[in-house]
């Protein structure tokens, strides 16, 4: 019996965001948008879903006079990501 | 998405991300390399033409020029920012190098002024150029370790140890500025390697 894939992570953009955040301490919205190639609107929606699930934290602030949204992966998000990758490996093997 | 597609997406995202962050670090190596080369040649030219070594005090202007420029580059770098362990280590290494180098230089100036202090003979007697260039070589080598790049590791070792050897062969005169010119060019080369290795 294959383990169930986390539905929160099993979406292309959300998985890309979590993969990106898993490799950094923090990243701002513009950076994530650039790296994932997503539109601002879609990215905002997916970030909100990840935040609601407790996988990432979102901090809104200012960089100079410009608004800046910084995202970080949480311990729960990292653990979910690990489990997701482990499940994928089982599927493949 | 299939399992393979998901894994491919994860791998690609992680790799692209690491490369992007490392690549961004390259421009700071280039900036400080150009400044180091410029200041070494400027101090050399002034020292050579006037015969006074006090032109070495111009080195204190380098961080005053460099840090605002680095800040300007960072603020212009879109608003997109991300940090990872490697970028934080590299930043820490070179900030520490800057603090150590400036402190050593400041102590030397201070003890040159207060010449009768017992520590003065030790501090002023030591070779500031050799000390700083050795620290530089160490910082460069550790950067190579963090970036997993052999060319940078070797460049750091050769610059550090080689420059100390050159210094003791040529002696304390204006020619020693070429050691810093070499170090500056090594920094520029490091920046180009970092930008290109990705």
Task: Briefly characterize the structure.
With 93 residues, chain A is α+β, with helices and mostly antiparallel strands. Helix content of chain A is 54%, strand content 20%.
List the helices and strands and how they pair.
The complex is a heterodimer of chains A (93) and B (198).
Chain A: H1 12-22, E1 26-28, H2 29-36, H3 40-52, E2 56-63, E3 66-73, H4 75-92
Antiparallel strand pairs in A: 1-3, 2-3
Helix pairs in contact in A: 1-3
Chain B: H1 3-50, H2 61-76, E1 82-83, H3 85-113, H4 118-125, H5 128-147, H6 150-170, H7 177-197
Description of the molecule:
- Chain A is of the alpha+beta class and 93 residues long.
- Chain A has one domain: Orthogonal Bundle (Arc Repressor Mutant, subunit A).
- Chain A has 4 helices and 3 strands, in the order H-E-H-H-E-E-H.
- In chain A, helix 1 packs across helix 3.
- The longest helix of chain A has 18 residues, at 75-92.
- In chain A, 33% of the residues are buried.
- The model of chain A has no long low-confidence stretch (mean pLDDT 88).
- Helices cover 82% and strands 1% of the residues of chain B.
- Chain B has helices at 3-50, 61-76, 85-113, 118-125, 128-147, 150-170, 177-197; one strand at 82-83.
- Classes of the chains: A alpha+beta (93), B mainly alpha (198).
- Chain A binds chain B through residues 10, 12, 15-16, 19-20, 22-28, 30-31, 33-36, 63-64, 66, 68, 84-85, 88-89, 91-92, and chain B through 1, 3-4, 6-7, 9-10, 13-14, 16-18, 20-21, 75, 78-85, 88.
- Strand 1 of chain A pairs antiparallel with strand 1 (82-83) of chain B.
């Amino acid at each position: 019996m294959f383990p169930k894939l986390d539905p929160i992570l099993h979406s292309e953009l959300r998985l890309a965001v979590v993969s990106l955040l898993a490799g950094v301490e923090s990243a701002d919205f513009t950076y994530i948008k650039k790296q994932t190639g997503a539109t601002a609107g879609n990215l905002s929606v997916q970030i909100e879903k990840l935040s609601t699930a407790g996988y990432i934290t979102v901090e809104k602030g200012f960089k100079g006079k410009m608004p800046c949204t910084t995202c970080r992966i949480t311990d729960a998000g990292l653990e979910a990501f690990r489990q997701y990758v482990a499940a994928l490996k089982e599927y493949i093997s | 998405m299939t399992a393979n597609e998901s894994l491919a997406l994860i791998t690609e995202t992680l790799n692209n991300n690491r490369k992007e962050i490392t690549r961004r670090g390259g421009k700071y190596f280039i900036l400080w390399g150009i400044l180091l080369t410029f200041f070494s040649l400027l101090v050399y030219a002034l020292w050579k033409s006037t015969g006074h070594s006090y032109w070495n005090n111009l080195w204190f202007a380098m961080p005053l020029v460099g840090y605002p420029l680095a800040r300007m580059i960072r603020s212009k770098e879109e608003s997109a920012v991300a940090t990872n362990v490697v970028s934080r280590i590299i930043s820490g290494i070179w900030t520490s190098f800057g603090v150590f180098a400036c402190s050593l230089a400041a102590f030397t100036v201070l003890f040159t002024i207060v010449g009768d202090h017992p520590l003065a003979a030790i501090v002023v007697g030591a070779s500031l150029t050799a000390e700083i260039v050795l620290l530089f070589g160490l910082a460069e080598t550790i950067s190579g370790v963090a970036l997993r790049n052999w060319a940078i590791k070797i460049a750091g070792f050769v610059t550090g140890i080689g420059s100390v050897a050159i210094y003791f062969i040529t002696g304390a005169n204006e020619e020693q500025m070429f050691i810093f010119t070499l170090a500056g060019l090594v920094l520029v080369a490091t920046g180009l390697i970092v930008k290109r290795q990705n």
